[in-house]
Specification:
Immunoglobulin-like, TIM Barrel
Length: 605
């Protein structure tokens, strides 16, 4: 086994093999650029750590396994012994995908990779194309969202070992499912982080970071920090066959150099994938489309971006609440049409919430580059007790809204349990020691106070303690909910099938899409095919009923010698609806409240 560690200031680096009476220490030799290395016998399972100038042992920064958590010794792992069966798996590209975000610990009662693997056939049957795992890197405590990871190469020991993670990915590929991993390259957790024992240069004070110290990608000794994170991306793609990465909060990955570290991460990840295709998706709150542009155009070369604008206007549309960071949205028909046609709403305009302009212009970026959602881990948790969207609106309203999500030109993301209206909440949870526990709980209360309803004293008291095991247990999905709400699952299954099978919708061509406002909360989207006779309509009303609607809107007119035929209706009783209403008769439209319908043009000659 070759042991290598970066400790540029260290005078002496020793490897401690084993613990207790059997432990022994071996000196590492300088290997250039601040690295120290040693080759010695160490079979899989061997516990080890590094002693830096007489202090330690500390866990390996690049540990592949932490059997006792981040404060314990590391363990040798040899993933090359795993037998993969996915040699013919081609990987994935953004067009045609449907993402499903899940937290391994809360997705099943057992909370393990192996238990999640058993549930994969159900997702494939539903019509999911890509499973997106929330961060799995080793963290302190028994439960955590994963964004406090501190051992970035080690899958959390509570979820299973490296072989069980490999089994999960291999089984997904056998079912035709891609697997993307959420990674955090913008900060490190405060508990169990030993990188500072090896070098103070992992972090910098030159940039502000709301989650702690910013990482040093462009200052003194940055080469070792860059390599650490770049190689982490390579590791997940190469060793575990992941089909891509979701890069958390990229606006907080600061780099003044060229190429930007994100561009290097993207290039390295694609090289690691070899002939497999992978997707790289950014979360970027300022909505900077530089993420999507190629490095030759000054961009980072990523494939997709999360579209917060879509979520925010959609959330306001069905709840009517635009407090806090929703204050710049009204949920109007025009906003919803614009997200479908233009991707982001804010492309450089003034943004009241931040008191500055937000966004950059969207030009040729394709529809599939914009990942849209009505729920995700953050947005569900940003209520006082992790309420899901169906708790904040009516079933009919949510069905109408999700018709736009699932048929629109963006790449839809479904949050775990959304497909069966899970009654379980998804609050923020992270187990820490007593001192940090209080700080995290108060921080959560302070963040949610931007919403007036959550800032009151009674609401603050009800905000769950993230470190309470009951908070974590409350988030686990319930099989009883799944069984009771099969009609909700049928809704998702039917719309995802329609999305795949319809020749125009499946193209995700936002440039072949037009839209018009039919009322304050009502709108139509129209897909136009290469032939003049090929057209589709999605008619959505999130407001009150509009009887005998008369509007001089040409998008409602069928192609010459054609008529509109209804293909799908959100009020189908199979979905728990109240019955399919007559929406279009003799050229006249009546739009029921909280309703959506999909239409295709047919020859009426």
């Amino acid at each position: 086994m070759r042991f290598v560690v970066w400790a540029p200031e260290a005078q002496r680096v020793e490897l401690q093999l084993g613990d207790g009476a059997s432990k022994r220490r071996l000196g590492l030799s300088p290997a250039g650029q601040g690295y120290h290395a040693l080759v010695t016998a160490a079979p899989p399972g061997t516990r080890y750590g590094y002693v830096i100038d007489g202090e330690g042992p500390w866990p390996d920064p690049c540990s592949r396994s932490q059997p006792d958590g981040p404060h314990g010794l590391s363990a040798v792992v040899d993933i090359s012994t795993f037998t993969w069966t996915d040699a013919r798996w081609p990987g994935i590209a953004m067009p045609g995908q449907v993402f499903y975000e899940l937290h391994v610990g809360a997705f099943t009662r057992e909370g393990t990779f192996d238990a999640a693997r058993e549930a994969l056939p159900r997702l494939a049957e539903l019509g999911i194309a890509v499973v997106e795992l929330m961060p799995i890197a080793e963290f302190p405590g028994r439960f955590n969202w994963g964004y406090d990871g501190v051992q970035l190469f080690a899958p959390f020991h509570g979820y299973g070992d490296a072989a069980s993670l490999a089994r999960f990915v291999d089984a997904a590929h056998a079912l035709g499912l891609g697997v993307v991993l959420d990674v955090v390259y913008n900060h490190l957790g405060p508990d169990g982080n030993y990188l500072g024992r090896y070098s103070p240069h992992y972090v910098t004070q030159r940039y502000a970071n709301e989650w702690g110290d910013a990482l040093n990608f462009d200052g003194p000794h940055a080469h070792g920090v860059r390599e650490f994170f770049i190689e982490n991306a390579r590791y997940w793609i190469e060793d575990f066959h992941f089909d891509g990465l979701r890069l958390d909060a990229t606006q907080s990955i600061h780099d003044s150099g060229d190429p930007h570290v994100l561009a290097d991460i993207a290039a390295t990840a694609r090289t690691a994938a070899g002939s497999r295709r992978i997707v790289l998706v950014a979360e970027n709150e300022p909505q900077d489309v530089r993420c999507l542009r190629s490095p030759t155009e000054g961009g980072f070369g990523l494939d997709g971006m999360w579209n917060d604008d879509f979520h925010h206007t959609a959330r306001v549309a069905v709840t009517g609440n635009h407090h806090g960071y929703y204050c710049d949205y009204r949920g109007s028909a025009q906003e919803l049409v614009s997200t479908a046609r233009h991707g982001f709403l804010y492309q450089g305009q003034w943004y009241q919430w931040q008191r500055k302009c937000r966004g950059t212009p969207v030009t040729t970026e394709p529809g599939h580059a914009f990942v849209t959602f009505t729920q995700n881990h953050d947005q569900v948790a940003n209520t006082y007790d992790g309420q899901r969207l169906h708790r904040l609106t009516t079933p009919a309203m949510e069905r109408a809204l999700n018709a736009l999500l699932l048929l629109g030109p963006g790449t839809p993301l479904i949050f775990m349990g959304q497909e069966f209206a899970a009654a379980t909440p998804f609050p923020f949870f992270a187990e820490h020691g007593p001192a940090l526990r209080r700080v995290v709980h108060e921080g959560r209360r302070d963040f949610l106070a931007q919403f007036p309803a959550y800032g009151s004293a009674p609401a603050r008291e009800r905000i769950p303690d993230p470190a309470d095991v009951a908070t974590f247990e409350s988030a686990k999905l319930s099989e009883a909910d799944r069984a009771a709400n099969a009609h909700v699952t049928q809704f998702y299954r039917d719309l995802l099938a329609l999305r795949r099978s319809d020749a125009l919708v499946s193209r995700q061509d936002r440039f072949g899409l037009d839209g018009a406002v039919l009322g304050e909360r009502a709108f139509v989207l129209r897909w136009q095919g290469p032939e003049a006779s090929a057209a589709r309509l999605l008619v959505v009303n999130l407001g009150t009923t509009l009887h005998d609607l008369v509007v001089p809107e040409p998008l409602l007119a069928p192609p010459a010698h054609h008529a509109w035929r209804k293909v799908w209706d959100s009020e189908d009783p199979r979905y728990g609806g109240s019955g399919i209403p007559p929406v279009h008769q003799e050229g006249r439209w009546s739009l029921p409240a909280a309703h959506a319908s999909f239409w295709e043009s047919v020859d009426d000659r």
